[in-house]
UniProtKB/TrEMBL annotation:
UniProt record similarity statement: Belongs to the ABC transporter superfamily.
GO biological process: peptide transport; transmembrane transport
UniProt GO MF annotations: ATP binding; ATP hydrolysis activity
Database matches in InterPro entries: AAA+_ATPase, ABC_transp_ATP-bind, ABC_transporter-like_ATP-bd, ABC_transporter-like_CS, Oligopep_ABC_C, P-loop_NTPase
Keyword field: ATP-binding, Nucleotide-binding, Transport
Annotated coiled-coil segments of the chain: none
Protein name: Peptide/nickel transport system ATP-binding protein
Short name of any one Pfam family annotated for the protein: ABC_tran
Domain ABC transporter residues, every copy: 20-265
PROSITE patterns in alphabetical order: ABC_TRANSPORTER_1, ABC_TRANSPORTER_2
Record Gene3D superfamilies: P-loop containing nucleotide triphosphate hydrolases
Length: 340
């Protein structure tokens, strides 16, 4: 890794220029008329990430978190909308233009066992993206060695193979591979969910340090709200491809305003039974079941019989989602929940 990146406004954009902007993103899978009749996997999502900021993207399995990550990384082209990296829409670039931007936008995947090529040394793995950027072989190796040191591994790990490292060490190597190019935005796709608890804490601390040191913007995909609370400043709550609620991490996790977020936070495991009981009580007061559970929907909701997840969110009725205030979008069902 090179010296800490220049985080001046000129290098990173001004405060008014987010590192990453996602606007009205619509993503579909499949092709043909039949696919068009299906609801899109991502349906009109938009949010920003400032330089040095972490935005947590949470939601149950299938809500569309990874699909947003894929659209941002150019792995799946959106049907419409924009993904702007420092103001430039990366969804409309040619392959060549995209390659030249690749250094600015990197990814760390969930599984450190499958994301590193077992047949390549760690040095080869770290040098490769630098060589693609046009960095000379000798300099690339120096940067690879520094990159390993910056994630707490010895520089001579360049000569070893992935099988010689533990899961946590492999994830450090994956982080070094992402950061060795001095990116501006990193997509972290469940980067600690394959690790044990103590290793998770170490890797999260490392990510927080590297973000603060280099002014990195993280799109942090996770389903564990505890983990998100540790690293993210803001949270975007996703459900069936739409944003249900977004705001500062403390307020969204401690005082969720949307019934779906209440259900999601209530479903998250918490270490203290008292806190879990308080969440359960809050959920019951709102009349919402656990996310993804078969509990009855809110009493009095006329759409409850048609709500497939029985969370009290009337999927049949979307759109319209309406803006309740600057930080909350809700289906009309929210109006029926007095505590909101
Ligand atoms: N390659 C694909 N082809 C067709 N549909 C897909 C494909 N990938 C994802 N989907 C669908 O898109 C929706 C969103 O999936 P996605 O993987 O983005 O959710 P997720 O929130 O990341 O889930 P998880 O937490 O389980 O990884 C789901 O309905 C899923 O079935």
């Amino acid at each position: 890794m090179t010296a800490p990146a220049d985080t001046t406004s000129a290098a990173r954009g001004t405060a008014a220029t987010p590192a990453l902007e996602i606007r009205d993103l619509v993503v579909r899978y499949g092709s043909g008329r039949k696919a068009k009749r299906l609801p899109p996997a991502i349906d009109g999502v938009g949010f920003d990430i400032a330089p040095g900021e972490t935005v947590g993207l949470v939601g149950e399995s299938g809500s569309g978190k990874s699909t947003i990550g894929k659209a941002v990384l150019g792995l799946h082209p959106p049907a419409s909308g924009a993904v702007r990296l420092h103001g430039q829409d990366v969804t409309r670039l040619s392959l060549k233009q995209r390659t030249s931007l690749a250094a600015d936008l990197r990814v760390v995947f969930q599984d450190p066992y499958s994301s590193l090529n077992p047949a390549r040394t760690i040095g080869q793995t770290l040098v490769e993206p630098l060589r693609l950027m046009g960095v000379g072989a000798a300099e690339a190796l120096v940067r690879a060695r520094k990159g390993l040191e910056s994630v707490g591994l010895p520089a001579d790990a360049v000569d070893r193979f992935p099988s010689q490292f533990s899961g946590g060490q492999r994830q450090r190597i994956a982080i070094a591979r992402a950061l060795v190019c001095d990116p501006k935005v990193v997509v972290l796709d469940e980067p600690v969910s394959a690790l044990d608890l103590s290793t998770q804490a170490q890797v999260l601390n490392l990510l927080a340090d590297l973000r603060d040191e280099h002014g990195l913007a993280f799109l942090f995909i996770a389903h564990d709200l505890g983990v998100v609370r540790f690293l993210a400043q803001r949270v975007v709550v996703l459900y069936r491809g739409q944003i249900m609620e977004t705001g500062p991490v403390e307020s969204v996790t401690q005082r969720p305003r949307h019934p779906y977020t209440v259900a999601l936070t209530a479903a998250a495991p918490v270490p203290r039974p008292a806190e879990q009981a308080a969440r359960r009580a809050a959920r019951e007061a709102l009349g919402v079941g656990s996310a993804g559970s078969a509990q009855p929907a809110a009493a009095g909701c006329p759409f409850a019989p048609r709500c497939p997840l029985a969370t009290g969110i009337c999927v049949e009725q979307r759109p319209p989602l309406r803006l309740v205030d600057d930080s909350l979008t809700a289906c009309h069902h929210a109006e029926r929940v007095p505590a909101l």
